[in-house]
Write a structure and sequence with these properties.
alpha+beta, 2 domains, five-stranded antiparallel beta sheet, four-stranded mixed beta sheet, 22 strands, elongated
Length: about 700
């Protein structure tokens, strides 16, 4: 056989000039793939390690629900209704299972529609957020974050880093730093989110979010926000209310309904649309929610008592008020009906009688005769909080509103409303200053007048004569005793009210006259306790104190002050069908104007002036302040039976509050001792009727 012919070898293909490039690319591809899978493996290992580390640091979910460094203060009015919150309000722990389903749906629709299906991070969301930020001219991590709810929880927990006062000056600085979005923080969020998803269920992650997120107006968590804005629990919110709460997440202070309700409602309408698009609401339910937007509760809408709340917070112990780390409840004396009456009266008089561009200010205090403050307005912006409180902080000259303390001394020393004094030229040599001659407001002299007439017409010279005769020390003693705590003037001008006092002090001093001559310490706190504890930590801090003048003296003085309203400088403060007493006050160049007075039920003080001591053109205490006082008290007493003032009346003399026969020698049952000691001095300026 012939050997088989060898098969011919295939001809070798000619190599092109770029063959080497193909081999290089294949080699590079294999290299890149090797680097990629090794890098991926390394990244997975790092992520797994970091996630495991974070996982080991996570406590039980119940310890994650309240992360506040400070506590809250809830203020209740006299009827135990909430009227204000301070500090970091936390309404109580809630879970995803206990809140309204509408709230869960609104949050998921707004913040993270794939929350129940992702593993803690949404690469698509992050990429989309970066693109939006770049399109809007910001840095890739400035503005939109693309964070899932789980990543937001990681931020709320500050990636496990707790507040350290040595590193952050305030809790607010700490929270702002935790919210700051940087590349490194974004990288850290990923393993922390994985750890959260591994450690807790979806509902537990959501529960942490529900409790810790800030929702404006000092409210932390949806329970606090629902109570703050709607006066109800988070388990009872409607779709419209749930949408409004969810709408706060993007910018809680900006969209807070207490700041701008219309803006909050517009934001809520957007959330309702998202809920409808994602199937959480039917078309009919969405239409109903849009047609019936969420409304604030009466307490949230009124925002009454901001100045009152500020005063209570400032006057209490700081560790239980301003700097509390506990949740505190303060039961106060505030009457929201009276507070509203004062605010409405102030607004009405300024709207009707003061030019719109005027910067004039006013303050009102209303209290009971025992010093329980029922209303307090510290300025024209009646819904302000955390600002200058003129009712409690403004030390202003009192003017003639001080004169009742001068006459209180005279009454206490045994003199009567019908005794007379000379309103004639008077010059007093003041050591170090030379001669001083007081003048009446109108520049005229009335001659011989009764003490009642001198007070009702607010004559200056008789007030100075009486003060000089009884002694300025005694006048200062009585005024200080009634509650004017500032250093009172040393010179003869003391009687004309050149000393300083706050509206709260003046109103409290007049309360002492109404209650029969005993000092009061104005108070706004009935009791203070911790949330969940029945035993109060503090009781009321004020009330009736020591007696300053006799009851007889107080009753005579009330009669004289009643004549101020009936026939004198305070006629514009008169109340229809109800007895009232008070005193006007106007300081030099009309820098301050006052009316302070009372009925049998309440005491009220009104101050008006400019913060910079500019003169009030054409305003006296018997003008606008008296009108504000009248408008306030008309509202305060609406529907209340008229009660007579507890005053002496002509034809009767009293001793210890009981009628006694008037003595022929003119003595009237006043106090012995001090009265007898100074009677001779007083007789130099008084003559008997």
């Amino acid at each position: 056989r012939q050997p088989a012919a060898a098969s011919p070898r295939p001809a070798r293909r000619a190599r092109g000039p770029l063959a080497w490039l193909g081999r290089l690319l294949r080699l590079l591809g294999r290299l890149l793939w090797a680097v990629f899978w090794r890098a991926t493996l390394a990244l997975v290992v790092i992520l797994a390690g970091a996630s495991f580390y974070f996982y080991t640091t996570l406590p039980p979910v119940t310890e994650m629900l309240d992360g506040r460094a400070r506590g809250s203060v809830t203020l209740l009015d006299a009827s135990d209704e909430v009227f204000a919150w301070r500090g970091e309000t936390f309404g109580g722990q809630i879970t995803a299972d206990t809140v309204s389903p509408h709230l869960i749906n609104a949050i998921v629709a707004t913040e993270d529609r794939r929350f129940f299906t992702h593993f803690g991070v949404s690469p698509r969301g992050i990429a989309g957020a970066i693109m939006i930020n770049l399109r809007e001219g910001r840095g890739p991590f400035e503005g939109h974050g693309g964070s899932t709810i789980t990543q937001q929880v990681a931020k709320l927990l500050c990636l496990g880093e707790e507040f350290d006062p040595q590193e952050w000056e305030t809790q607010a600085d700490y929270e702002a730093d935790c919210r700051r979005t940087t590349l490194w923080r974004k990288v850290q969020e990923v393993p922390y989110a994985f750890a959260l998803e591994s450690r807790y269920s979806k509902n537990e992650v959501l529960s942490i979010y529900l409790n810790r997120v800030y929702l404006g107006a000092g409210a932390y968590g949806f329970e606090a926000a629902a109570q703050r804005y709607f006066g109800k629990s988070a388990n009872a919110v409607t779709p419209a209310e749930a949408a409004m709460l969810a709408g706060l997440l993007v910018a809680p202070s900006y969209y807070a309904p207490t700041r701008d309700l219309s803006r909050a409602q517009a934001r809520a309408a957007t959330i309702i649309t998202l809920m409808e698009e994602q199937g959480f609401l039917t078309a009919a339910e969405a239409a109903h929610a849009r047609a019936n937007p969420a409304q604030l509760s009466d307490a949230a809408e009124a925002r009454a008592g901001g100045y009152f709340a500020d005063w209570v917070m400032a006057s209490g112990p700081s560790f239980l008020t301003r700097d509390t780390t506990e949740d505190v409840v303060i039961r106060t004396t505030l009457d929201q009906r009276i507070q509203t009456a004062a605010e409405e009266a102030l607004a009405q008089v300024f709207e009707e009688r003061v030019r719109e561009e005027s910067d004039a200010q006013a303050a009102i205090v209303v209290m009971s005769a025992d010093g329980a403050v029922r209303a307090l307005v510290g300025g024209r912006d009646t819904q302000a909080a955390g600002t200058f409180n003129r009712a409690t902080q403004a030390l202003r000259q009192t003017g003639s509103a001080f004169k009742p303390f001068v006459y209180a001394v005279a009454m206490d020393l045994g003199y009567r409303p019908g005794d007379t004094v000379e309103d004639a030229p008077l010059t007093i040599d003041v050591p170090g200053s030379g001669p001083w001659s007081p003048r009446n407001f109108n520049g005229e002299f009335a001659g011989t007048v009764t003490l009642t007439e001198a007070l009702s017409r607010s004559l200056n010279i008789p007030a100075v004569r009486i003060s000089e005769s009884v002694g300025r020390d005694l006048v200062r003693q009585v005024a200080n005793g009634f509650g004017l705590r500032s250093d009172l003037a040393e010179g003869p001008a003391l009687a004309l009210g050149v000393s300083l006092a706050t509206p709260l002090e003046m109103t409290g001093a007049y309360a002492g006259i109404l209650n029969g001559g005993s000092a009061v310490r104005p108070y706004g706190v009935r009791e203070l306790s911790l949330v969940g504890q029945d035993e109060p930590l503090m009781g009321r801090g004020g009330g009736i104190r020591e007696r300053i003048i006799t009851e007889d003296a107080a009753r005579r003085l009330i009669y004289m002050m009643h004549q101020v309203v009936e026939t004198g400088s305070g006629r514009r403060a008169g109340l229809e069908g109800r007895e009232a007493a008070g005193k006007t006050g106007t300081t030099q160049e009309s820098r301050d104007a006052w009316f302070v007075g009372f009925t049998a039920d309440y005491v009220a003080g009104v101050w008006m002036g400019y913060d910079d001591n500019t003169s009030l053109t054409g305003v006296t205490g018997g003008g606008l302040p008296a009108e504000i006082w009248r408008e306030t008290m008309e509202r305060v007493h609406d529907g209340m039976p008229a009660r007579p003032l507890p005053m002496w009346r002509p034809g009767q003399e009293t001793r210890g509050g009981e009628p006694v026969a008037r003595r022929d020698d003119g003595e009237d049952g006043g106090r012995d001792g001090l009265a007898g000691t100074v009677r001779d001095a007083l007789s130099e300026i008084f003559s008997r009727n």
